[in-house]
């Protein structure tokens, strides 16, 4: 028995030791250099590849003394799951040609992985005299590397805060190869930007030149960005995996060129914008963050009406700029006018140059007394980035005349709340005298007491008692159902913010735009934060401060990510239905916690 215990202890210790060794091997960082050859002729080419088993940042290649870089760096990423284990590989490759004979050292390259700096070992390469038959003919991968370039073209490198910047991602393809398909690997997150993808129709190749050589160019993605903070802001790179057919030197039976298929990873590279803050000099006091070129108007549906009738007052801004990212000015109306909460109306479309259209608030106004009521002029200010100046627009004063209705207790009821005051002009008599001859008539023989109506009204309360008891018990049962009431309120809240998205189920682009807007509007109403403050990091910080559980927070951020991914990835109707259901659940959970 004792011997069995000892054997079991030895077996358990061996398993733990092997497990720890395996875990250490899996988590060990590898960063090394690979050479296609260590000895080559001066008329041959050298392929240098730096590979790592974990993703890193700030890669710095060596100087390549004695060589000329003819291609690179080409970036390649490979990730897979085999038997529950993740395999990752990332590489930067260069094609070099020697500039002279001799022995040269490929010095150390560096990269940062998980906060640590790693370096490769130096490698020595010997360059000899030219060889008769160079063994370094271009491979399929070499041709693909030289013929594929993904470029991010930015419309403006130093925009103002909240000024539109257009980023166009173009793929340049050499005329010898053919692209069969592609898929995004790493999508930019556009932190510190309000972003809107512009749908790209079927790509149409165009003949162009890139670095002096003929290429075919295809626009793969367009996005409009509005920077939400000043300073240097990075635009993360877009990475694609591209499937290409590369011609070889072989021919088929009929003499046609044989193509070989390969996959390459291309990246647009990181771009940096220098965002300028809006000038403080000349900034109006009522400036609300509008940037662009706008027109401003205040109109009413009618200027004459009777008391208890209603009219519509509209405060509208039209033009081109950050229409969704500022607040409209509010009118100051006389206290004698009853004003309801405004209805927000938006008709904005985002084109390649930015947002354009109109936004408006519709106010329903109901006067209670007759008289004349002025709607004072309102000012709206915006910053025009083309002229680098602030512009203030002022509406005209509008006078509303109430023709018929009761007269207010005092004339002050019709006085404007601003310094531009105007008294009510009463019409008709203001005082009515009591009649001295009331012309009263005698009650006839039809007395109320003892009539059928008398007995009906006497019995009516007795009939209402059981109805009231049943109604009271039903209300009490509903009120005691706490969980049911929470579910009803949550469902009602979700329907309120997701109603537009539900209508667009089946229409991918419209559905996800409406879903993202509904999620943003919910947070805006619940947390009282401005639209310009929205970013995933900001939302995560706010929800963490409000002590929202991690599952709800991750669910909300995951939905926003799905909305971004859906703009350039295929999504099925089932996925849309699942995302809608998930959005309802997330809003319900957040509402209980907030």
TrEMBL record:
InterPro entries: BatD. Keywords: Membrane, Signal, Transmembrane, Transmembrane helix. Residues 1-24 form the signal peptide. The keyword Membrane applies. The keyword Cytoplasm does not apply. The chain crosses the membrane at residues 454-472. This is Protein BatD. It comes from Flagellimonas hymeniacidonis.
